[in-house]
DNA sequence: ACAGTTCTCCTAATGTCCCTAGGTTAAATC
DNA sequence: GATTTAACCTAGGGACATTAGGAGAACTGT
């Protein structure tokens, strides 16, 4: 039977899906090779090794992140944009756990900078803040606060860090409303 | 030469130190055994295996976390307590990266509940909030917001998520001041 | 069409690590 | 001092990552 030709792109896509299924830290070359009906050594024609694969998946996930968040805030501003942004962020984190973990995989700074993916995510954050009245350096601080809060909540939720007997959805809404308030009154605080 | 007798406790302590040196995800039974001049198989007398070690280190780190944060807020309240709490949190995260990563290692819920460590951390958070005027369910939401923000910032900082050319210390101070403001005016938001 | 080149995928082999099984010696108990 | 207990060891298997080198398919130029 004719085997589908391997390409780095197809491998990275399949690896990202695999990571969502079994967890980013269980992503393995053998498992990926098995999925393509190929020996693990064969992957080295297309990838430099496991570290390379992990970094590629990380960059891919970062790019998808930027796309989804960008789409969420397109045509919206202020509270509506923040709310859509935040909900998209959290649903990606919980719905695509492998990709989410991948976004936190450390990628060598040069490589991260070379692909523009990380910058795109930050760019979307700044776009979101356009609906609020912030200028530098407040905007940078605000972006950092925003990312910290959304990321921290998603991460703690994902790793089971929240144990209290109260709806996470409700707390999440409260967090988003609080962020809205902060961004609105930033200069007064 | 007389070999120091192994104990689970000594192993976990050494493992935590090792994790700080080489990263929690590079913590390995072989490396730990080597540090004690012993074969890896010998560790199985004291530990059930790698997963067991990782979970023990996680619980140990959580306990140390609770101790340090508790000490930071002892005798302080309100802004002073929050500031000390936050700074301790961040310095632990950056100064003890292996232990910090360990605190995020997923531990089976029963085991986590059995050791009281996770509850102690949450307890310290609630103690911190005593200086602010919050009652349930606001307190739970506030704890979640607080932990999310501090954790998110620390994690993004640790994984190189912040790239803008602005002092992280400055942004951190701003984040802490913002949290103080939110906690103070919680009911008004 | 065909000879030569290139590139994909393969087999084989090495090293590291987790883990189990079973033995040996040193410590602890009676 | 004899017996039991338990710490540590050697031996070995299985999963992965990785390298080296070979066979065959696909592409190139004539």
Q: Which regions of chain A have little confidence, pLDDT < 50, spanning 5+ residues?
A: none
**CATH architecture descriptor of the domain at 58-188 in chain A:** Orthogonal Bundle
- Roughly what fraction of the amino acids of chain A lie in strands? under 5%
Mean pLDDT of chain A: 94
CATH class of the domain at 58-188 in chain A: Mainly Alpha
The helicity of chain A comes to: 55-70%
How many strands, which pairing sense, and closed or not: the largest β-sheet of chain A? none
What overall geometry of chain A do the principal axes of the alpha carbons give? elongated
CATH superfamily of the domain at 58-188 in chain A: Tetracycline Repressor, domain 2
Write structural notes for this entry.
The structure is a homodimer of 189-residue chains. Helices cover 68% and strands 0% of the residues of chain A. Chain A is mainly alpha-helical. Chain A has helices at 8-22, 29-35, 50-73, 78-95, 97-103, 109-114, 117-129, 138-158, 168-184. The termini of chain A are far apart. The model of chain A has no long low-confidence stretch (mean pLDDT 94). The first copy, chain A, is elongated, with a radius of gyration of 19 Å. Chain A binds chain B through residues 25, 104, 106, 109, 112, 118-119, 122, 137, 140-141, 143-145, 147-153, 155-156, 159-164, 166, 170-171, 174-175, 177-178, 181-182, 189, and chain B through 25, 104-106, 109, 112, 118-119, 122, 137, 140-141, 143-145, 147-153, 155-156, 159-164, 166, 170-171, 174-175, 177-178, 181-182, 189. The first copy, chain A, binds a DNA duplex (30 and 30 nucleotides) through loops.
